[in-house]
Amino acid sequence: QVQLVESGGGLVQAGGSLRLSCAASGRAFSTYNMGWFRQAPGKEREFVAGTTWRGGRTFYTDSVKGRFTISRDNTKNALYLQMNSLKPEDTALYYCAGGSNWPPDNNWGQGTQVTVSS
After folding, report:
1. Which residues pair with 73 in a beta bridge?
2. Disulfide: which of 56, 100, 103, 109 matches 96 by Cβ 3.0-4.6 Å?
3. Residue 79 CA: distances (Å) to CA of 55, 64, 97, 117
4. Parallel, antiparallel, or unpaired for β 18-25 and 112-117?
């Protein structure tokens, strides 16, 4: 089990950038696959990006490929999502999640709001 706390959300203009961070507590972090999900108002939660437990493989949903980059630092128990060229349709509550499964969704943070204005 890990406890996850996201930060870094905010309001940004279209074309801008944000970097989300997820701080994890618990020794299991380095053994977990990790991912970012998002949920926009009135929509289902969707997978955005994920990384395997060693960080060797990364995966992205098509709509963010080339704009978002997921990374992790197992020495700091931290997960990141660098978001560039943000679009209004990226507006959502972003969640950090982790687990031994795929997509990793056994443990969830509370979410951080990202709002992109046009």
Report:
1. 78
2. 109
3. 10, 17, 10, 25
4. unpaired
Per-residue pLDDT at 28:
86
Amino acid 90 reads D
Nearest one of 61, 59, 58 to 46, comparing CA atoms: 61
Determine the Cα–Cα distance for residues 71 and 54; give it in Å rounded to an integer.
10
Which residues 6+ apart lie within 8 Å of 9 measured at CB? Answer: 18, 20, 94, 112, 113, 114, 115
DSSP string, 53-85: TTS--EEE-GGGTTTEEEEEETTTTEEEEEE-S
Which residue do the tokens 């955005």 mark? 48
Predicted pLDDT at 81: 98
pLDDT digits (tens, 9 = 90+) for 44-92: 999 999 999 877 899 999 999 999 999 999 999 999 999 999 999 999 9
pLDDT at 59: 97
> What's the confidence (pLDDT) of residue 60?
98
CA dist., res. 42 & res. 116, Å (int): 17
Pairing outcome for strands 10-13 and 112-117: parallel
